[in-house]
Specification:
30% of the residues lie in helices and 27% in strands. The chain is built from 8 helices and 15 strands. Helix 6 packs across helix 8. It binds pyridoxal-5'-phosphate (PLP). The site of pyridoxal-5'-phosphate (PLP) has 13 residues, from helix 6 and strand 13.
Length: 285
Amino acid sequence: MSRIAYVNGRYLPHRAATVHVEDRGYQFADGVYEVCEVRGGRLVDERRHMARLQRSLSELRIAQPMSPAALSIVMHETVRRNRVGDGIVYLQITRGIARRDFAFPEPANAPSVVITARNFDREGGERLAAKGISVVTVADDRWGRVDIKSISLLPNVLAKQAAREQNAREAWFVDRDGKVTEGASSNAWIISRDGRVLTRPAERGILRGITRTVLLDVIEAQGLVLEERPFTVEEAYGATEAFITSASQIVLPVVRIDGRPVGAGIPGKVATALRSKFHRHAEFS
Ligand code: PLP
């Protein structure tokens, strides 16, 4: 079955799904995106992802291409046409097509919309979670507005490649004070020696992950103590557990940081419990 992409009003087979050479997403990475988990054919936390999308668009002054209701219909239709049971739906909106010029086009043109969806190997994901992943730390040399979910991801690409070259699955960005900000495509968490769940506050230094937001409810329901504060790489090395969160990976235990075992070097009890309880607190649509 050929995969289908939604491109500016049309559902097209991938081989025919193209964007213009002067699309500002292609020229300047002038756009935003969202990734929602799809589970049992339904979207997970669509409402929150759409709220973050609106915020990203408004921070960059990109016009809304269609109403949230219409966008929701197209996302569900893209999931349906690709027969996605468990997987993701990807949505990207750029400032549209215009002759190459750095400042915004005048008069403003129509934003471009691309939506794709694909299946994931859910059992493979569970096996990975049971095994845990390795992360490596890299300097956080990104721009100051990483709170916007922009498609400008070159530092994240380089960080992920550095991880891969060291047989790790994720890279954790570290700020100038030696504190972890977040992963290249995830939020970063540790459990301190005194049992507190630590993660960086969602200010401008990180993306406010939707999985992160929902996990705060799970943490509360589990009666765990949360502390939203930056933690150092040394604290992470000495943590009893570590994990990452993202829409496509939910909660994924981290068992090695820069080659050093975290805790016993196996997925921790807390991370494993948070992963298994996550979807009870998520919204499905
Ligand atoms: N931080 C970064 C840099 C990301 O790219 C992502 C997801 O792609 C996240 C955090 C996690 O966000 P969410 O839980 O909304 O997927």
